[in-house]
Amino acid sequence: MIKIYIDTSVLNFYFADDFPLEKTFTCRLFDAVRQGYYEAYISSTVLEEINAAEEEIREKLLSLVKDYELKVLVLNEEVENLAMEYISEGVIPEKYAEDAYHIAFTVINNLDILISWNFDHIVKLKTKKMVNGISYLKGLKVIEICTPGEVEYEF
Questions:
Q1: Which residue from 16, 13, 51, 46 is spatially nearest to 152, judged by alpha carbons?
Q2: 87 or 155: which carries more pLDDT confidence?
Q3: 105-116: per-residue pLDDT in tens?
Q4: What is the pLDDT of residues 130-141, one digit of tens each?
Q5: What pLDDT shows up at residue 152?
Q6: Into which CATH architecture does domain 2-154 fall?
Q7: Rounded CA gap, 26 and 148, in Å?
Q8: Phi, psi of 22, rounded to the nearest 5 degrees
Q9: Would you call 22 helix, strand, or coil by DSSP?
Q10: Of all helices (H) and strands (E), which one includes residue 114?
Q11: Domains of the chain: which residue ranges?
């Protein structure tokens, strides 16, 4: 089974009525999770971002996590070190460290795909190439990074 990491941006687009195309792709992804096509994970970083949201949004996002039984990965030293390497190597700006953590959680936990709507720092060619270059040199898993629209055709 394909193991996917879902970052906070994807959870948010599940409720984004003002972005109908992105919402449709996101809902299809969650349907595929429910049908067992993917084993889906989030992380303690995602939960921190959810907990920082306004109460109404926070409750919707936490309900989504529970309803789809998303597994939660816990921060450890390996994830911390790899995230810091992404920042020091210029993959992710220090100001957006949580994005480096999303990537590091995916790599360290041997997941197959990081799914995001974050085009600023995650779903972009530079990030994909640098992340997989670092992984290759360190003997870590090479991952796919894409949007829900790119993976929804997998099932």
A1: 13
A2: 87
A3: 999 999 999 999
A4: 999 999 999 999
A5: 63
A6: 3-Layer(aba) Sandwich (3.40)
A7: 6
A8: -60, -40
A9: helix
A10: strand 113-115
A11: 2-154
Please state the pTM of the whole predicted model: 0.94
What would the pLDDT profile of 49-86 be if each residue is shown by its tens digit?
A: 999 999 999 999 999 999 999 999 999 999 999 999 99
CB 37 within 8 A of CB 2: yes
Task: Report the C-alpha dihedral over residues 140, 96, 9, 145, rounded to 10 degrees.
Answer: -30
Q: How far, in whole angstroms, is CA 106 from its chain's centroid?
A: 7
Tell me if 115 sits within 8 A of 147, measured CB to CB.
Answer: yes
pLDDT band at 153 (very low <50, low <70, confident <90, very high): low
Token pair 């829900």 in the structure block, residue: 148
Tens digits of residue pLDDT in 12-49? 999 999 999 999 999 999 999 999 999 999 999 999 99
Residues contacting 6, CB < 8 A, separation 6+: 29, 40, 41, 42, 46, 70, 115
Q: Which two tokens stand for residue 71?
A: 């597994």
Dihedral (C-alpha) 52, 57, 59, 60: value to the nearest 10 degrees?
Answer: -130
Distances (CA, A) of 150 to 5, 29, 51, 75, 147: 14, 10, 28, 27, 5
